[in-house]
Amino acid sequence: MNLVSFFAGAGGLDLGFKKAGFSIIWANEYDKDIWETYEKNHPKTILDKRSIVNIQSDEVPECDGIIGGPPCQSWSEAGSKRGINDNRGQLFFDFIRILEAKQPKFFLAENVSGMLLKRHDEALKNIKTMFKNAGTGYDLSFKLLNASDFDVPQDRKRVFFVGIRKDLGFKFKFPEYKNNKITLEEAISDLKENVVAAKEGNKTNKENWKFSNHEYMIGGFSSMFMSRNRVRTWDEQSFTIQAGGRHAPIHPQAPKMKFIEQNKRIFVPGKENLYRRLSVRECARIQTFPDDFKFYYNHIAAGYKMIGNAVPVNLAKHLALSIKSQIENSEKKQRSISKRKMELENTIS
């Protein structure tokens, strides 16, 4: 099945669907800092570099599905919390505009858990209604998922909308949770050595990489960062990988931070040398990007941003496999019904 992808970023969602057997024939991403990374890692996909607001629906290829994650800062608990009233929040309308015009078999949209806050109830209700009523209509499924339940070594809660076009005759069922949790030790322990610090000004230290993108952001830690523990142990899952490098979790080689008082912690005295941020490559591993997926940037912050904004590849793959199998089963059932109907009509005639 052929898909188009909006707000593609580096393409974590796209890669997960490709691994499940879909073809991403066309993608859209407006951030120029991401273009090289996307094009070099998805060479068979046409990349449109305009803002979605400037794309007419007839410029989008015919497709079986539309996927994407409209920008989430507007809904974030750590962000402006303005939701649909923010210009970025309104990009949902353009996603729905194109969905309505193209009428693919399905769509998937991802966003942050902050959109579930009570202050956004009315906006969320309206978005659900618009998804359901797009074109000839979609049966909508909606759920908050934690990536750690789907072969991702990270606590990461995100909201997913999945719509199945009504004529397919079924409502999507989200995949079952996986019981086995992947630990940080399983995910990144082999990367403990050969890591390098970014250059001054947090420019990339590419010439010293022994492993692609294996460099970490340097510089101090804010009082907000030091307000709570930022270390997960080797036998745990990572904290959420965020889009800002300064907020990257601390590497599990360090002991958990020492509590001083409410909203104040320190690095364990005498072991300060163990406290460093996770590298760009370690964050990519935790987001389940394969090692041959390379990120291109001059300033290390751009690497963290691309990775932190992505949908974890393994989570995307689980969702994609479920969508694919359920659509195929529905179509097989419909063909069987049509065949029996024709046989009955021939018998009567």
UniProtKB/TrEMBL annotation:
Residues in coiled coil: none
Q: Where is this region: Disordered?
A: 330-349
InterPro entries to which the protein is assigned, alphabetical: C5-Methyltransferase (IPR050390), C5_DNA_meth_AS (IPR018117), C5_MeTfrase (IPR001525), C5_meth_CS (IPR031303), SAM-dependent_MTases_sf (IPR029063)
Catalytic activity of the protein: a 2'-deoxycytidine in DNA + S-adenosyl-L-methionine = a 5-methyl-2'-deoxycytidine in DNA + S-adenosyl-L-homocysteine + H(+)
Give the enzyme class. transferase
Q: Which family does it belong to?
A: Belongs to the class I-like SAM-binding methyltransferase superfamily. C5-methyltransferase family.
The protein here is known as Cytosine-specific methyltransferase
Which species is this record about? Mesonia mobilis
